[in-house]
Amino acid sequence: MSQSKVADQTNQAMTSLQTPIRISFPFFQHAFGLHLEDIEAIGRVTPTEIDLMIILHKICNTNGVIRYTNRNQIYTRYKAYFTNPSSASQFYDAFQRFIEKGLVKESYCEDRDLYSYTLQHFLKEDGKPERFATIHQLVFGQAFQKLTLSARKLFFLVAMRQENKQQIIHMTLKGKKGLYTRLRKSLPVQIQSSMDELIKAGFFTYGYIQKEKGVYHQAVCCVHEDYHCKMTGAHLRDPLEPTIRYPRKVGFIKRLLDAKGIGELAGEIGAFIHLFKRIGNRVIRNMIRELAHYIKTTGQYPSIPDFIKKQTRRESERNIIDLAYEYDFDQYVTEDNDPIKREEAFHHFAVNLSRVINLKDMRKAFSKARKALKDYGTRIDEVYIDDYITYGPLGKEKEMGVIVQRAYQERIKPNSFKALVRKAEFFYAQGEFSLKECYDWLLAVIKTAKEEDKMQPRYQLSYHADEFIVKIWESPSFS
Questions:
Q1: Residue-wise pLDDT tens for the chain (479 aa)?
Q2: At what angle do helices 362-376 and 339-356 cross, to 10 degrees?
């Protein structure tokens, strides 16, 4: 199916659901510039700004807030509601003007990487609603959008005052509050022309200019009874639900929450998705397990973003510390054997690195630093041949001297070598090996020893380990 057909079907579906709009009267006054002292600024409103006022009031919640979205999602909803929408550039320009005028407050939510928009002049300072008027859904239709800008403005000026009452509206022509100023016209015939448009379209029952002492002084008009709106209530709003990104990950997270008995947190799925979007399923599973444990242990619900960020930092720390051991940098972090002091030293080491180096680049940074040790560090040998001497039954034979020399030359770790000797002595004690077979086995194992069983060159650094890694990582001359 073509995109145009999809768009047509979407518009038809939305049109069938259109209902009247509840618009804040103070918001309308500020959007139309009716509150200004500057006569030149009164009535300066574009067709797109009128549309924007309508759609914002349609898709906000009962507090005038559109949560966790962005301008593109609002524009998408706008296109679905209106039969003849403005272009994207016109819409975004109008949106920016509303923000600059203080009609809409934009706030960024870092935890979700989305924005919330709050309509100003919607609630009073005490939290109670401002005065509202209900406007018929005709404003979404093509007939209304075909009207001239002046006719559209006049419709709102009358409908916002008349609302669901049957009264006749009288509007003066002259002065700051007159129609000449508000519609930016200078002649009675121009005002009459706008009323005629609305009558022809069927939106006004009648509209004419009254004379007094031979001078045109006011317009008299009335919205057609078919477009009087008596409806009120929250059901007139259609709060925008932000598009859920990463649907597969959403499903995975919801299943985990249900499995851990905390499925009620699915309402926070937006926060979960933003914080988990670059994290693997194994880590997500661990974090949700920790979250469930916390809730069941304390009986309280933590701030989801804060809790996840804390767990993410811990996970990142563990990954960094694992890399430190993998690349033999653990020996440069601390030589203290006290468990608490070692934990504190590794914590500061991981935190300092994560402040400068992105986690996805951490392995590259360790590898780069490891290669640079021989050029920037002073090599020291802390292992001696005496460290390989054993005193068991195999160590008493002269052939053991050859094996010790070979282990030292191959830089086998002394502890690893002694473990091999103990294993050979066990075979000898069980009668599985003769002495010669034990020595042959030890030589063969030493020859094929894995890298993790060998001593890595040790260097003395003039910097702390984290400072050294950062300096090498940021050095353009070392790759």
A1: 344 443 444 444 344 457 899 999 999 999 999 988 888 888 889 999 999 999 999 999 999 999 889 999 999 999 999 989 999 999 999 999 999 999 999 998 876 778 999 999 999 988 898 999 999 999 999 999 999 999 999 999 999 988 656 678 899 999 888 999 999 999 999 999 999 999 999 999 999 999 888 889 899 999 998 898 877 777 889 998 766 667 788 888 889 899 888 888 887 777 787 777 767 777 788 788 888 888 888 888 888 888 887 777 777 888 888 888 888 888 788 877 777 788 888 888 988 898 888 888 899 999 988 888 877 765 555 667 787 888 788 877 778 888 888 888 887 888 888 888 889 888 888 888 888 888 899 999 888 887 777 776 666 677 788 888 888 888 765 54
A2: 100
* Long-range contacts formed by 92-99: CB under 8 A, 24+ apart: 93/48, 94/46, 94/48, 94/49, 94/51, 94/52, 95/52, 95/71, 97/49, 98/31, 98/49, 98/52, 98/56
Do residues 27 and 119 lie in contact, with contact meaning Cβ atoms separated by under 8 Å? yes
Residue 406 token pair: 């070979």
CA 239/CA 106 separation, integer angstroms: 17
Q: For 382-446, give the secondary structure using H, E and C.
A: CCCHHHHCCCCCHHHCCHHHHHHHHHHHCCECHHHHHHHHHHHHHHHHCCCCCHHHHHHHHHHHH
Counting beta carbons within 10 angstroms of the beta carbon of residue 272, is it exposed (0 to 12), middle (13 to 18) or buried (19 or more)?
buried
Q: Are 162 and 209 in contact, with CB atoms under 8 Å apart?
A: no
Q: How far is CA 268 from the centre of its chain?
A: 12
User: Across the strands, what pairs with 458?
Assistant: 380
Apex 106 CA angle, 104 and 112, nearest 5: 145
**Within 13 A of 139's CA, how many CA atoms are on the CB side?**
32
Which residues are CB-contacts of 146 (< 8 A; sequence separation ≥ 6)? Answer: 84
Please give the Cα distance from 424 to 373 (Å, whole number): 36
Tell me the three state secondary structure of residue 326: helix
Q: Tell me phi and psi for residue 443, to 5 degrees.
A: -65, -40
Element (H, E) at 150: helix 149-162
DSSP strands (E only) in 142-203:
169-172
β-strands 104-109, 204-212: how paired?
unpaired
CA distances from 343 to 325, 329, 338, 346, 349 (A): 13, 15, 9, 5, 10
As a whole number of angstroms, the distance between CA 396 and CA 446 comes to 19
**Cα 359 versus chain centre, distance:** 19
Q: What is the dihedral of CA 160, 42, 100, 158, to 10 degrees?
A: 10
